[in-house]
Records
---
Amino acid sequence: MKFMKLGSKPEAFQVDGKCIRHVTSDLATDIIIKVGDLKFYLHKFPLLSKSNHMQKLVQKASEDNCDEINMVDFPGGPNAFEICAKFCYGMAVTLNAYNVVAARCAAEYLEMTEDVDRVFLNSSIFHSWKDSIIVLRTAKSLLPWSENLKIVGRCIDSIASKTSVDPANITWSYTYNRKLSVQDKIVGDSMKLQEKIESVPKDWWVEDICELEIDLYKRVMTAVKSKGRMDGAVIGEALKTYAVRWLPDSVDALVSGVHSWRNKLLVETIACLLPSDNGVGCSCSFLLKLLKVAVLAGIDDSSKEDLVKRISLKLHEASVKDLLIPARSPQTTLYDVGMVQSVVNQYMTHEQRSQDVEPGKSAGFVLGHGSLLSVGKLIDGYLGEIAHDPNLSLTSFIDLSCSVSELARPVHDGLYKAIDIYLKEHPSLTKAERKKICGLMDVKKLTMEASMHAAQNDRLPLRVVVQVLFFEQVKAASRAQSRNSDARTTCVSKMSPDEEWDKTMGEDCRSLKKKMSEVETNEDGGQKNSKMGKKKSRNSKSGVQLLPSRSRRIFDKLWVVGVGKGHVENRSSETSGSSQSPSSAVVVRDNTTKSSGVPSRHRRHSVS
C-alpha cells in the first residue's frame, strides 16, 4: 500500500473525554469547531491561513458574536476534519488508500489552498491495483462528494484498464485462491518451475473486485466489458466468483426478509452482466443456480426469461440436481416443474431450428446427436425425481415427458423407471390414468432387464404386461433364428433395424399377435370366476395345469406359440380371470406331426 507523509511537527492533539479534542500549546485556544459529536478547541490563525471556507465561517461567527462554529454534514466526519486540522498546524499526517478520499473531500469542503491530497491520488493511488480498489470501496460512504470530485469514475477506469493488461505484463500483487482453469493448467504443465511461479492466469483480477458493493461492482464490470478486450469465459468466471462470494447457500437465507431484497438485486445485476455469447462464457450449472435464486427471490420475468434462454443453449451439460428448483407459493409441488418445462421447450425449439438450417449455411446453434441423447437421459432422471412428489399432477408429468423428442430416447428404461415411481407414489390413479401414463413408453425400447421387471410389475396395467411379454418373445425368436442361419445373419446385418424386423419376424409377429389378442384380459384383474375352454381334438386328450402368476401364464402361452410355429395349434378360448384366481385355466392341445403311424402326443398348458 502506498502512503504519503505530510508535516513534521509532533502530535499535539489531546483527548479530553469522549467528545473533546484540544491542541497542547502555550497559547490559549480561541475558537471551538463542532463536527458531529466532537468539539475541537483550536486556534484561528493556522486554520485561516490554509482554508478559505474557515475564513468565511470565522467572519460570520465574529459578526454573530459567537466563538463556536458548527459544521453540519462535514464529509468524512470528525476523523477527516482532524486530518485537515493537523495539516494546517504542520503536524505529521500520513495519507493512505483508506483515508485519502475522506481527506480529499474534507479539503474540498474547507476550500484548502494546497492540493497535496489531489497530487497523492493522481501520482500514486490511481496507479496501484489494490489501492484503487480500496479507494473505490471507501468512496461509497462519501457520496456525492467522491462522485462529484470524479474519484469514483477515475478508480473504475483505472481498475478496468488494468484488467485488460496482458497477464504476462502483470507486475503488481493480486489475490488468487481458486484453482487454475483447464487452459492455464495445460500451459502450466509445459513450463519450468520458475516460469510456473511467474505465470499469471487470465482471470487473476476477479477475486479482488469481489469485495465491492453491488452497484460499484456493476459499474466496474460494465467498464471491463465496454473495452471489448475481455474473453467471455473470463467474464463468466468473474460473475460466478462474485455470486459464490455473496449469495447464501441455504434456501431459507435466500428468501429471508433481511436479505431477500439484496439477493434479488444481486441476481438481477449478474443476469444483466452475463456475456452476450449465447451462454458460452458461463456453465449451465451456474446459470441454473442463478435461475433457482431468481425464482426464490422473485425477480422480474424478463430476467428469468433471459436465463431460461441461456440455459436452454447448454441444457445437455446440466445434471438432475441442477434442475431441482424449489417451487414458490402458491405452487403446491416441491419443485418448479413449469420452469423446467420452459427450459426444455426452448431447447427443443433450438434443436428444431438447427435441423431446419440449410446445408452450407452457418448456424449459431447446432446440436449434436450426443447432446440430444444427454437431454433425454437428463429429463428422464428429472422425471424420476419429481415423481416422488404426491402433489405432482399427471398432466405436468405427461407434458414434460412429451416435450422431449423421440430421438432423445432410444431406450425407454429411464422413462419406465419414472413411470413406475409415479404409479407407486400415486396409488389412487384411475384405470384410464394408469393407461394414459403407461402409454408414454414404448415397450419395444425396453432392455431385457427392464422388460423382466415390467413383466412382474403389478402396478402396470395387464395389457402393458402382455405387450412386454409379447415383444420379448419376438426378440427371443429373432435371436434364435439369427443363430440358426449364418447366411441370413449376413443379409440382415446389411439392413436397417426396421427392415431387419420386417424381414425376419413378419410371420412370427402375425402368429403371435393373433395369440396375444386371445389372452387380453380386463386391466383391473378381471373377475374371480374364469371361463374354462374345452376343445375336441383328434388323437389327443385335454388336461389342466395351474401356474403361479399372471405373467408366467401369459409367457407360457406365448412361448408355446413361438416355439411351435407351424406345428402347434392353439385352440384355447379367451379368458377373463384375474391373476389371483387359482381356478382360472385353459386347455391347450399340442399336436405333433405323425410319423410311421405313431399317434401324436398330447400336452396340457395353463395360461390364465
Note: The mean pLDDT is 78.
---
Amino acid sequence: MATIRKLEVVSPVPADIDVANSVKPLHISAIAEELGLQAEEYDCYGKSKAKVLLSTLDRLQSAKDGYYVVVGGITPTPLGEGKSTTTVGLCQALGAYLGKKVVTCIRQPSQGPTFGIKGGAAGGGYSQVIPMDEFNLHMTGDIHAITAANNLLAAAIDARMFHEATQSDKALLNRLCPADKDKKRTFAKVMFKRLKKLGIDKTNPDELTPEEVKKFVRLDLDPALITWKRVLDVNDRFLRKITVGQGPDEKGMTRETGFDIAVGSEIMAVLALTTSMADMRERLGNMVVGTSRGGDPVTADDLGIGGALTVLMKDAIHPTLMQTLEGTPVLVHAGPFANIAHGNSSVVADQIALKLVGPEGFVVTEAGFGSDIGVEKFFNIKCRYSGLTPQCAVIVATVRALKMHGGGPAVVAGKPLDHIYKNENVELVRQGCCNLVKHIENTKSYGVNVVVAVNAFSTDTEDELQAVREAAIAAGASDAVICTHFAHGGAGAVELGKAVQKACEQHSGEFKFLYPLDISIKEKIEAIAKSYGAAGVEYSPEVRLFQARYLSFS
C-alpha cells in the first residue's frame, strides 16, 4: 500500500509530541484515495484532515462488510491502561505489517481532559494519530457545532419561559403563528407533532378553541425540572452551578442551572448513534429538555427548534479522516463519555469503514472506560441501533492495574507510583487477575471471541506478564498477547494482529444482547448490575420518588 511507512523508533521513547512531530503526515487526499474514496466523497479541511461524506454509503451499499473489532479494557487506574494506544498500534500492525486493509474508528477527544491531567487521546509513543495537535484540539469543529446547538436550545428554553410568563395566550399564538399579509395563519410543519401529542387534529390556528390555544402555546415548563444545561468544552468548575436571569430585562425570572462539558451534551450522544441526516433530525427533535408542571415531558420539537439544531449539525454528521504514524487511515467521529452516555464513536463512521475495507479487511473501534461500561454499551446500545455484528473484542490489560486490583496501593494521577508497581510481585498480579477474568467472562457472554492485549511497560517482568497470559487463557480468551506497540509501533503489535485476525476468522458464535428493549428500566439496570456480579439493586428514596412521578420504571 502506497501510504504505508515504517517507523524509525528510538529508545527511550521520546515525548508523544516529539514522536508525532517527527513524522510528516501524508496529504489526506493520498490516504483517501488509498482507502478507496472517490474525489466527490470527501472534503479536505487543510492538508491533513478531510470530512468523509455520508453519500459514500450510497455507492457502497451492496458491498460486503469487513471484520468488526472493538477494543475495551480492564477496570483502569486513573492513569489509563492504553486502550487508544493499543487500538492504533493494532491497526498499524494489521495495515503496515500484515498487509490488511484496515480503518481505525475512534472518538474525538474533549478539550476538558486534553487540558487536564489525563491529556489527549491520540494514542501514545509510536502508536498515534497525527497531526496529534490538530486531533486533540479543534479538529474540524464538530464539538463547537455541538456547543452552538446545545446552547441555542438552552437559550430557547429560557426565552420560552420568559414569554409564557409575560404574554397572554393570544399574544403567544400571534408570535408562534403570525398572520401573513392576507391575515391568514398557518402552523409550521414541526408544530403538527405537538398538536398530535396534545390530541388536536386541526390544521388552522384560527379554528383552535381558547382551551386548545392555551394547551398549544404554553409548555408550562417547571423550572425545577429542567434537565437541559448549557455547555462549554473546557473544565471550568465555577460554571457548574450558576444563576441565570439576573438582568433587569428578565424581570426577576432567576433560576439555578449550570454548565456541563460539551461532549456531555445529549446532542453528542445523538451524533454518535445517528444513521442519516433524517434520523439525526428526528433524534434531535425528540430530546427531552424538562418536564411541565403537569408532569409531561417537553422536547426540542415542542420548542420548535429541532430543525435549527439540525442545520447547526449538518457538517458535524460527517466523520473526519486522519492517519496514523504509519500511514493507516483513521475515522474520528463523535466523543460521548461512557459514564453519562454510551462512550463510543459514531455508527456512521463504522458503517462507512466496514464497506471501504471489504470482506477481508478490518475495522477496529474503541469503547470508552473499562469494558464493563464502554464495551457493554457498545454491544447493547451501539450495535443494537446500527445492526452491525462484531466478531472479536480486545481487552487491554496492564500489570500495573492488575497489581492495584490485587490489593496494591491506590494509583493517584499526578503522584509518583508506589515501589510495588516498579518491582516484581507475581502473586499480587495473580490476585488482581480476578478483574481481568470477569471482563473476559462478561464479554464472551455476548457471543464474540476475546483476545487479551497485555500492554507491557518497561518495569514489567517476564513472570508477571506470563501470569497475566495464563489467567486470560484459563478464563476463556482466544489468545493473550504481550504487546510493545508504544515503544515499537505496529511492529510491537504484530502478534496481536495475528491473534485478532484468527479470532475473527474463527468466529462462529451467535451475537446476543444482555437484555431486550421491551422490559422496564428497572429490569435493564438489574440485568447490567447482575452481569457485574451484584446480587441486586437498591434504589434511594429520591430515585423512587422521581420514578413514581415521571418514569415507567417497574
Note: The CA atoms of residues 32 and 321 lie 8 Å apart.
---
Amino acid sequence: MTWNKSPADGGGGGDDTGLARLRELGYKQELKRDLSVLSNFAFSFSIISVLTGITTLYSTGLRFGGPATMTFGWFVAGAFTMAVGLSMAEICSSFPTSGGLYYWSARLAGKRWAPFASWITGWFNIVGQWAVTTSVDYSLAQLIQVIILLGTGGNNGGGYLASKYVVIAFHAAILLSHAVINSLPITWLSFFGQFAAAWNMLGVFVLMIAVPTVATERASAEFVFTHFNTDNEAGIHSNLYIFVLGLLMSQYTLTGYDASAHMLGSSSFVAHDRRAPRTQTEETKNADKNGPIGIISAIGISIVVGWGYILGITFAVKDIPYLLSADNDAGGYAIAEVFYLAFKSRYGSGVGGIVCLGIVAVAVYFCGMSSVTSNSRMAYAFSRDGAMPFSSVWHKVNKQEVPINAVWLSALVALCMALPSLGSQVAFQAMVSIATIGLYISYALPILFRVTLARKYFAPGPFNLGRYGVLVGWVAVLWVATITVLFSLPVAYPVTKDTLNYTPVAVGGLFFLVLSSWVLRARHWFKGPVTNLDG
C-alpha cells in the first residue's frame, strides 16, 4: 500500500489535487466542494453504522451460530470487506468522481464495453442503495415500535404493539425528515455527518460498557468466544451451514462505504441541460486522497468498534432461546430484550434499557440520513447521462448546489420499496435482500474490470496497492461471488413459500430487468460517461 505524489501536486501543497485530477480526466465540478477528509469519512462511517447493522440483525447472529459465529465471523467478514474496500479505494484515487462505481466501470472496461459496464454497475448500485435506505429506515420504524412496546409495559404487561400500518407510517415520517435535512446546504450535511460519526463512536462505547456492567448475571468468556448455537428451529443442522448464515449480520453491517466515492461530488457526466449551474466546485477537497482515506478508515474503525460492541452485548446474554422467543417483553427483538433485562434485573425497572435503545435509534436515524445523501448523489450522477427515466429532472441542482430533486426521489423510492411489508414480510425481505447482494455486486464489477480488462493500462492515483493490487482485487471479487451464492441458500427447511429465501429471485429479477432494458433500448443510445468540459 503506497501513496504516490499526484502529478497535480506540483509542489504546491495548498492545491486541490482532486480538482486538478478531475480536469485531467476531462470533467468540471458542479457540486459544492466543502467536505474535508473527516466529513467524507463521517458519511461512510455513519452509513456502515455498527449500531444499526448489529442491532438490526443481532437476532440472526444469535439464531445461527450464536456468540462464536458473531465474535469470529465478524473478523472473517471484516477481513474480506477490507479487501473489497482497499480495491475500491485504489480505483477511487485514480478516478475521483461522484459517479463512483458507475464511472469507474466505464473507464476500466475499455471503449467497447464501457456503456454496458457502466449501465449494469450503475443500476445495481443505485437500486442497492435505495434498498439500503429502505431497510435502515424501516428497521428504525420497527425499533420505535419495540421502544413504545417496552415503554408501555412490554409484551407481557399490556404494552402497545403498533400495527404494520403504524410502522409504515413511522417509516414514511422518518423518510420525510431525511429528505428535508438532505435539502439543506452541504455545510449542514457535513455538520450532521460528523455529529453522527461521533454519536456512533460514543454510543458503542457507552453501550458495550454499560449493558454488561449493569447486568446482574453475565456470560463467561468461554461462552462468548466458544459457544456455538445449533438450536435454530430452522431444520438446519450442519455447523458450516449455520456459520455461513450467521455471517449475514456481519456482512449486512459492513456495507455502504461507497458513500465516500459518491461524496467526491464531481460532475462526471455530460450536461444535457445547458442551463444547469457550471461552478468550479466539488464536495470533497483533495478527493483523490481523501476519498480512499474515507473508505479505508470507515471500514477499519467499524471493524474494531463493531467487535467491541458485539462482545459487550454478548457478555450480557444468558438464555438464547428466551431472547429469541416472541413471548418475551420485547416480542422477540433479541437485543432489545438484552438491554431491558440487564437494567430490570438490577434496578427492578427496564427504563435504562429503553434509554439504551434510544441511543441506538438516534444512530440508526443518522445512518438513514447519510444513506439518503449517498443515494441522491448517485441518482444525480447517473441521471446526468440520461440513464434514468426523466433524467433531466433528477440531475438539476438548486441555488445551494444540492441535487434537490434526486434527494426527494430517493426518499420516495425508499418508501415504495417498503410497501410490500404491508402484504408480506417475506416479500419485503426479498426487496431489501438487494441491499447486501445487489450493492456488493456493484462493488465487485469495477474491481473485476480493473484486474482483467484494465490490468495492463490501469493508471493508479496517489493511493495504490502497488504489486498487490491485482491479488487483492481478485480476493475481493471472489469473496463477493462467494457471499452471493451463500446468502442465496435456503434459511429454513423444509422449503415452502413462506420459508423460501427470495434473495436469488430479487437479485435475479433486477439483473433480468437491467439486462433486458439494455438489449431492447439502452444499447442504442446510452454511451456511458461523457466529458462536460466545454471545448
Note: Residues 181 and 188 are 8 Å apart (CA to CA).
---
Amino acid sequence: MDSSEQRRKRKRIFRPSSPIATLVYFFSVRSFVLCFSFLIFLFLLSYQIPFSSSVFRPVLVVSRLSLLSSSSDLLSTSQSFQDFGSSSLLHLQIEGRVLFPDHVLLLVNKNDLFSKNTDFECVYGRNRTGDDVGIVKEKSFSVDVYGESEFGVLVRCPLPPVNYSAVVNLRKFRGNGLWKESNQTVNSWENVAYAATLDGNTVVVFVKGLNLRPDRESDSSQFSCYFGLGNFEKEGRFALRTRAITAAQEVVRCALPLSIRKTPEKARGIRITIGMLPHIHAKAHEHVLLPSVAKITELKSEGRGNVENGKYDLCVCTMVWNQGSALREWITYHSWLGVERWFIYDNNSDDNIKDVIEELETENYNVTRHVWPWIKTQEAGFSHCALRAKKECNWVSFMDVDEYFYFPYSTQGHQSLRSTGYAGQDSLRSLVANVSSSSPRIAEIRTTCHSFGPSGLNSAPSQGITVGYTCRLKSPERHKSIIRPDALDTTLLNVVHHFHLRKGFRYMNLPQSTAVINHYKYQVWDVFRAKFFRRVATYVVDWQNNQNEGSRDRAPGLGTEAIEPPNWPLQFCEVWDTGLRDFVLSNFADLSTGLLPWEKSSF
C-alpha cells in the first residue's frame, strides 16, 4: 500500500495541473530538444572541418576591395548576350579576368576538348548605361596554354569598345554558339594576387597592390595568406588563414595549413590571396583581402631529363617580349660555352618566338617556354624562375637576350678560374664548377657589363649582334649574376641584376680580365625604339612617362617620345672593341661557306 500511494503521489507531481502548466511543460521539452539538436549540429560541423590548431585558425572573410566592374554596373550575361544555339556552346569555364592597360586577360579552365590551335572571339556586352542591348565581337590577340596552372588556358582580348563592359566572354572563332558565363568579376591589374606556387612546406604568392619598397624586406606581420576551400567560386569566401613568413616587393611567403602540410599536393588548385592590415594598429580580423586570380601550382621539371647527379651544372633564365629574332644566336653561343638548360619566360610576345623555340628543341637545345602574362614583373618573374630552377640546376644565370658572356685572355693570376688560358668550349660551365669546388660558400658570381652602341650601323647586322656591334662605352655599367638557387634568401629578393643570399653565403666579383658581359644595349634605332613601348622591370619607369628622365635605366639624351635622335648611329661609341666579334668568327663560322649557325637558319 505504501508503495502504491507513493506512485500515485509521483504521478500527481509530474502531471500538469492546468492548461497553462501544460503549455509550459510542452515548450520546455521542445526548447530542450532544439538546443540539444543545435549542439549536435555544431559538433558535426567542427568534426568535418578540423580547426583546432592555434597556428591554423579559421576565418570567414569576404573581400572588402571593390572590383573594377561589379554586377550592379553591368547587365547580367543572360541579358547582355543572345544565345546562338546550344550545339556550339564551349565546354570551358572562365575563372578570372584581369584588366590591363592594353588588353583583358581571361583565365580559362581547360578541358579535354581544348586544342592549342583553337581560336576564340572575344564577346562584349553593353554597360547598363547603354541604350541598346547588343554585343560586339573581336578576334582574340592570343590563346596560350598556361604551364602547370589549374586554369590551363590564357586568352588575351582587346580592350572593350566605349560603353561596353570589360566582362568579356568567349565563343569559337566564326562559330555559331556563345558560351554564357555567370562570373561577372573583372580584376584591376593594380590590385590582384596573380600567381602562387608551392615551395616545400610553404606557398609563395605573387601580388600586385602591396606597394612595398624595392630591394627591401617588409614587415611580414602585416600580411596573411587566405585559402579558399569548397565552393569558392559561388560563395566568394576564403575559409582558412596562415600568417606570412616573409614579404618583399611583390612576393609573400606563407606556411601551408597543418592539414595540408603533410601532403602538399592537396594544395594544388586551391585559390589563394593575401590579406593586409589597413593600418599598423589593426587586428587580424580587420584584414583587407586583395582580389585574386591565383591558384596554387606545383612547378615541375619540363627539361629533356636529368643529368647523372640529378641537376644541370649551368642553366639560364630570361624574360622576353618579341625577341624571337634574337634568340637563336644567343642560345647557340651560350650553349657552346656550356649552358645546359634554358627557361624562357614569355611576356606576351606576338612574334615567332614559339616557332623558334620549337625549332631549337628539335635541334637538341634544352629550351622550354613558360608563359608569363604579367606585365612589368621582371623581378617577380625571376623569383618564380629561381623556384622552378632549384629542382634542376646547380647554378642559374639571369640575363637578357642582348647580353653575352665574353672571356678575354686571362692574365696569369686568373688561370685558376678555368683550366686553359683561352675561352674554349664549355668555359662558362667550367668556371662555375671551379667556383663550387674551391669556394662552397660563394653563391653568386657577378660579372661586369659593357654597353655597346649602334657602331655606325643604320640597319640590323646580317651576321648577328656579336659580329655587327663593335663600339662601346669606355666605363662599365652595372653587372649581371649567376646564382645558386638553393642559397637564395627566403624572401627571393632581387633587383634583376642580383639576388639576396641566405646568411652564411656571399658573392664574388669576377675580374674583368677573366670575363665580362657584352651588353648590346643601344642597337640600331629600329630595334632600340621597341624599349619605349615595353619595359619589363617592375621598378623601372616606362620611357614614355616623364618621370626619372635622368635615370641610368634610360638612354642618355632621349626624351619621352620614340623619335630617333640626331646622329644616333654614332652615339655611345667611345672604344672600338672587336674581341667577341673575332672570337665568334674564329669558333662558329663554317669553314667552307663562312656562314654562322644563325645565318644558316635564317637563309
Note: Residues 316 and 518 are 16 Å apart (CA to CA).
